[in-house]
Amino acid sequence: MPRRARVHFVSLRSSLVNLPISIYGPLLERSVRPQGLAIHLILVPAEGQRPNDKVEAYVGWTGMASASSLAQFNSAHSGESGLETVEIDPQYAQGLGLTQGDIVEIGLLHDLPLAKSVGTEPLTSDDWEIIELHASHVESTLLSQVRVAKIGQEIDVWVLGRTRVRLRVVSLDPASRSNALLLATNTEVSIAPKLHRNKLPLSSQANGKFAESDKKPVNGVTNGKPKLVKPVSYVLRILPRRLLRDLTFPEHTGSELVAYVSPRTFARIFPFTSRSQDSLCHKATFKRLPSPVDPSASSSSSPTPTPTARVLNPGVGEKEKEKEQSTGTEPGTGDVFIGQMDGITESHLTFLVASEGIEEWDIVHVAEATEHDSIMLQQASADIIPSSSVASSLPPRSFLAGVDDILTKCSEYCTRQFILHSTTNSVHGVSGLLVTGRSGTGKTSIVRAVAKELQDDPSTYCHIHYVDASRHAEQPVLAVKALMNYWFNKAVWHKPTVLVLDNLDKLLSAEVEHADSFRSRHLTEIFVSIFSASSRTASLNSRGIVLIATASSSSALHPLLNSTHIFKEVIHVKPPNKDARRDILSRIMKDRLDIATDISQDLDDPLNFTALATQTEGYSAMDLQDLVARAVHQVAIRVASGADKAVIKYEDFNAAQKDFIPLSLRDVKLQKSDVAWSDIGGLRETRRILRETLEWPTKYAPIFAQSPLRLRSGLLLYGFPGCGKTLLASAVAKECGLNFISVKGPEILNKYIGASEKSVRDLFERASAAKPCILFFDEFDSIAPKRGHDSTGVTDRVVNQMLTQMDGAEGLDGVYVLAATSRPDLIDSALLRPGRLDKSLLCNMPDQEERKDILQAVARKVAVSPSVDFDSIASATEGYSGADLQALIYNAHLEVIHASIAAADHEPNQLDSQEDEEPVKFTTLGGSSSRKMLSKAEQTAIEQRLRQIHISSRSPETKSNELQSAHRKRHDIEPHHIQKVLRTTRPSVPLEERERLGRIYRGFVSDRNGELPVPPDAGGIGNRVSLM
């Protein structure tokens, strides 16, 4: 409810008021700033007085309390005499219609909108003259005296604290319901001129009366000069001359600014000029239209100056204006001589020489000059200006190898969108293209090349606006919102435009678990509201704008972007293949040698880039650049160490590859293994098939490349426990020369919905990045069991995802899947079909010959006596697996260690005992007579010291002979050690278990679907069964 107060005059010399204490106190407690508060005063009519007109005023607050209200507040009188007072300047109050002692209702307005521009006019011509004299002072002190503007209300400004200037508000922007707005630091205040009668132009006077045209304000500001009829202006787009490589422009050495347009545009600007005068350039005027302002540039500039309002002064004389135009104080405007030339796109303007204040792709207003003038330019001959001179000055195009199909797809998509936009007048929503790929694959280079190609295309001549979104990932949401609006407005202003948003996933990332994703979701909603066609708040016309964004993957972006269909097409960039790597290496090496002229190749033994491409599987273009740089560094090291010539060789690349991890493999955990084929006994057929499937396609790649059939890419190793399935996989990791990734079941399974499937996708993506690579799944039956038997559904989703990954539309190029299990019947049958796990290899229990082979392979790692008969041991270990045989040898070796330790405790060292038993005789010479008697401890210490000196003085031959004579004998595994271990060792797989697993394996081989009628051994009472 508004409070009442009595008006009290105090010389404040401003358009502000001091509030009563009862209002001042709560405002002070709530920390209300005076700059954001407006005071609404309404005159209360006196008793018995009939109100004719409602008197109200909108004023500002000084931030101070009314000093005179304290006495009124403490007064004991009731009624109006006890009212508090509101203090106001008397001169300002008279202008508002208030007098001393009037009662007013006070209203507080906290949400009054801010004004962008305020149009005012002086009440008298004297006020205008004072403003002209003290314009800078009024500009700097305006906000300290005026806070609120209302249409029709007077505002007073005191100049130098003495002279009052009275202004009346005539217009406000934006419009307000109460016709009142707050003034802010970015508010522009325009003051219309008000000249004395004898200073008005003669044309504006007619029989002592003003002309009607002078009475009408223009844009809310009264203009004090007559209107001029201006020629028709046309909006043209600045086209860079570098894009017109096929055109030959005339020579011009004068100081005039010359530009060219198409003949049709020329006829529109100069309608009375004939087509025959092609060599004439006619005079015109141009003015650059202001483009959207970058908010980041304005925020990073110098701090906001103290003046909070700007006073426009249109009353400057015409001579001063002409002087300012002649001196060129305003950039982007001036005179230009325009000619016509075929080959220039319509509505475009091309300058021969860049003008000050004009940039490429700017929008300008061009009109025929009022003063008709022209110049003659002669066409340059071919021998003076060759056609290749402009092209030679251009920077060379970037070289991209192995991505020709991707460049074609991107260019065709963008061109197709521009063609569709040209057939309609309005396009709702921006057409988007998403380019995905791992870091270092060249996404940025690809989108830059596509945008450059579209810019050079005469059918589009599009403007390129490149933005690295990762730079704005940490900025506030409001700042990013302003930037997004600026990106869109900039694209609309210079259209047709290709808007490139690089690393968009860093700004609009996907939501993650256990983290606050409100910021990402908020930014994505803002982005969708600006660029998506499905948003109601999006621009009504996005014609001529194509968006190209890059991200690591589609899943790395917020899901809202996919659901709103901003990106109509997604193109994935794969690592370069062998031919592309060869071309990239040769080009990088050529560029390096052109820069480093002191380094050269060996002409007798040139670099074999094909062989280098074969050794750099999985390398991206960035990795290849780093590799060449490391190789050049190796040459520099060799020259610094004393080499005669700086010649780069194949060995430099081999040295550069040591300890070099490609970018795609730095987040991939690769397993290393020391197991060789010779460490595995038996399983000859299984090893042969493994080598054929995994080693031969890499070793004999040219032969397998001619195969029209799809190669085998999946193997299943099944068999009895301890028969070498995991050991075979470890040997494959070393012998086949492939990267090796081992996966355990718990690493994949996750309780959250979708997390397990994402783990499977990430596994195959890592394997694709590390190709040629082997993806090994141990205990595969726990990862991919039969579907329909899991109450949670986690393993079912994992199986479905693996089915998609192992036999997708693109297949597994360079990725081999190796799985191991002892229960193949529990694996889902869909994974065992051709195209996924093509071949199943049985690791059977070893026979006698294979057991002998296993024993010999294990015996190479320990000391075994030649008297050990492996044939007899192999015959005595029927039913033993490979792991049992290895444990047998290791336990026998442990028996040897125990025996040697026990023997060492009872056999002292003969060499040490002989030295200790020999007495050492010595004689003491010199010293004091009182110290001739030595204690037993001192005598023993001297003897040990002399004995050590005596031993060290012997010859090396004597030492070696004594050591050989006293050397202990070698402790080997003897037959009795093995026999002792055999008496206490039993097979790890009992006979009943072997028979049960044998039945399962026979059923698995005869019927690959794995659908057994009943679970094995489930007929007896009390027997354990599986949950099939």
UniProtKB/TrEMBL annotation:
Cross-referenced Pfam families: AAA, AAA_lid_3, PEX-1N
Keyword field contains ATP-binding: yes
Gene Ontology terms: biological process: protein import into peroxisome matrix
Localisation: Cytoplasm, Cytosol; Peroxisome membrane
One GO CC term, this protein: cytosol
Regions of compositional bias (Low complexity) in chain numbering: 290-303
Span list, region Disordered: 287-338, 908-933
Ranges for domain AAA+ ATPase: 429-577, 711-846
GO molecular function terms attached to this record: ATP binding; ATP hydrolysis activity
Membrane in keyword set: yes
PROSITE patterns the record matches: AAA (PS00674)
Catalytic activity: ATP + H2O = ADP + phosphate + H(+)
UniProtKB keywords: ATP-binding, Cytoplasm, Hydrolase, Membrane, Nucleotide-binding, Peroxisome, Peroxisome biogenesis, Protein transport, Repeat, Transport
Assembly with partners or alone: Interacts with PEX6; forming the PEX1-PEX6 AAA ATPase complex, which is composed of a heterohexamer formed by a trimer of PEX1-PEX6 dimers.
Family: Belongs to the AAA ATPase family.
Protein name per Swiss-Prot or TrEMBL: Peroxisomal ATPase PEX1
UniProt organism field: Crucibulum laeve
